Amino acid sequence: MESKYALRNLPVYQPGKSLEEVKQEFGLSEVVKLASNENPFGCSPKVWEALREEQAYTSLYPEGEAPQLRKELARRLRVDPGSLVFGNGSDEIVQMIARAYLDKGDEAIMAEATFPRYKTQTVIEGGIPVEVPLKDGVHDLEGMAAAVTERTRVIWVCNPNNPTGTMVSGKELEAFLKRLPEHVLVVVDEAYFEYVDAPSYPDSLSLLKKDPRLLVLRTFSKIYGLAAFRIGYGVTSEAIVGELNKVREPFNTNRIAQRAARAALTDQEFVRRCQQVNREGKEQIRAQLDLWGLSAFPTQGNFLLIDTGRSADEVYHALLQRGIIIRSGAALGYPTHIRVTIGSEEQNRLFLKELAACLKKPFRERG
Q1: Which of 156, 235, 272, 294 is the most exposed place for a label (fewest CB within 10 A)?
Q2: Residue numbers of the chain with a pLDDT score lower than 50
Q3: Which GO terms describe its molecular function (predicted)?
Q4: pTM for this predicted structure
């Protein structure tokens, strides 16, 4: 009964509004969604080619261990196949971690402004979330290390962080790990790591070989464009994989998602193109913000957290009526910021044009 009382104050996760919902609500024929950090270019064409082969197997249960995907991903990452665990999106692995490692009264440390499911899953399991404020939008690793107690079981580090897009470096992460006692599991969530271009970003898979307390989360939802399929993975020690498998549902990743992920891995040229267009889009938006005198956190993801200098909720609703879906930072602890996904060049242009109208700023077409 006590866990139910703890859940009363938990907010329900609110995804970005759908295209169909906004079209119907405001009578619009064209809507641009830049709210959920999705890939504006979809997924590799190789995915759809591969899925034709799955039509004959839709009546069969999927392989719970994802053997083919496990083998091919392990080869690509140069890790042991036994070090991989798969989830219905990497957020299901967040749930598995909380279920496997947190008992009532255990503590889990996380940033105050970060991916909200860390806190939610901690509370669901009867754990105590310990939130450490960010410093200039970046994880305060010193503060997080200082918050560790005998009851700490898990530390969550979202890198790059959602919603700020900021990152901790390899040196910072290594120094942080050295400060922690052995009873603490460190989860580094790298959902956006394919978008990172900073040379100082951690080589977390190499760190895994030296530190068995580390678990790295990644996903096919972002740059691979498979968010609708729900497939993510974790890389860690075989011992931790064994613990997670105890709480993993037997058929948690469906066969079609597994096949889609396998096909997506074969098209790294698609990934490179998406990386390049994301860099160009980031520059496109930043250049306009500079002209307006507006700031944004230095992002290593495919999104920007922009300080509009006005109520984020007001800007959000104004853009929504103009057919642009973004996220208000109000619920994220940033009442004047909006989070916007970096889209295609045309989507970015439309966003900037409508933002200019909302903020009464000049907008000049690029040409």
Answers
A1: 272
A2: 1-3
A3: transaminase activity
A4: 0.93
